[in-house]
Write a structure and sequence with these properties.
Helices cover 27% and strands 19% of the residues. It has nine helices and eleven strands. The protein is globular. The two termini are 35 Å apart.
Length: 263
């Protein structure tokens, strides 16, 4: 069953009131750096996948900030997560069947503090990358398209901004990551998975400079230790409490993705 919080729910209701971030510095257990990724930007303070959410991530010194990209009907990469436009903009249709010029006329109709961001437009990949130029925060790009022919343009955009050593490209689609690797032999990749298995560890290793990014709720000490013991970079999503961050820290995890936590 799909609840209202599911990304596949036709009208995914999103909280409009900004929420306070919770600092992991309050923890007495976490004594070494915990590298925190802002999931869809600092989406507790501004609409997810909006430029203000990423500017806040840079201002607050997050390790990285994750976005979702999709192609418009006229092949422009824009930032959007849900299958439908309804949840963010209260508009019918999808990114894939809407042209870029039309999308730019839409205003945010939900998300944290959205009423204060009515002049903001759906961002392009280039605009997203511009936020990170000259910063220590790493841009993390999740490909949410089934398209393979236009993946080279993602690599080209990263290179054009001088972010090849900083950017991270991530996907649930292993074939997409293979394609990215053909275009660039060095750029860091993260293979998104639900449960960690030996097969997925081996696939990540085969790509070279590829991490696993796994669902926190589906992985316990055994699977997490399996990955870490083999030297695979590992991040867990989505971790929203200091208590959960402490559990992962005790297991050796130093990279998490969050909607609520900060340094």
């Amino acid at each position: 069953l799909l609840g209202a919080n599911s990304p596949f729910f036709p009208l995914r209701l999103k909280a409009n009131e900004p929420k306070e971030l919770v600092s992991i510095s309050q923890s007495e257990k976490i004594t070494e750096p915990m590298h925190i990724t802002a999931h869809r930007g600092v989406n507790s303070q501004a609409p997810e996948n909006s430029l203000p959410a990423y500017k806040k991530a840079v201002e607050l010194g997050y390790y990285s900030a994750e976005c979702d990209i999709k192609l418009t009907s006229d092949n422009v990469w824009v930032l959007h997560h849900d299958p439908l436009l309804m949840g963010d903009f209260l508009k019918a249709g999808t990114v894939a069947n809407t042209d870029f010029e039309t999308l730019r006329t839409y205003k945010y109709a939900s998300g944290a503090d959205f009423m204060n961001y009515q002049d903001e437009k759906i961002p392009t990949l280039d605009e997203f990358l511009d936020v990170f130029v000259g910063s220590s925060t790493r841009p993390q790009i999740e490909i949410k398209n089934n398209n393979y022919d236009m993946l080279y343009t993602v690599v080209d955009a990263v290179r054009a901004k001088g972010l090849s050593k900083s950017a991270i490209i991530i996907s649930f689609d292993y074939k997409q990551l293979q394609k990215i690797r053909e275009y660039d032999s060095d750029i860091e990749l993260w293979y998104l998975v639900y449960g960690i298995t030996q097969n997925k560890i081996d696939k990540a290793k085969a790509l070279g400079n590829c991490w696993l990014s796994a669902d926190f709720s589906l992985n316990g000490a055994k699977s997490i230790t399996l990955a870490l013991s083999q030297g695979v970079g590992l991040s867990l999503w989505t971790v929203d409490s200091v208590k959960d961050a402490e559990k992962l820290y005790d297991l050796g995890v130093r990279y998490i993705e969050t909607d609520r936590l900060c340094k």
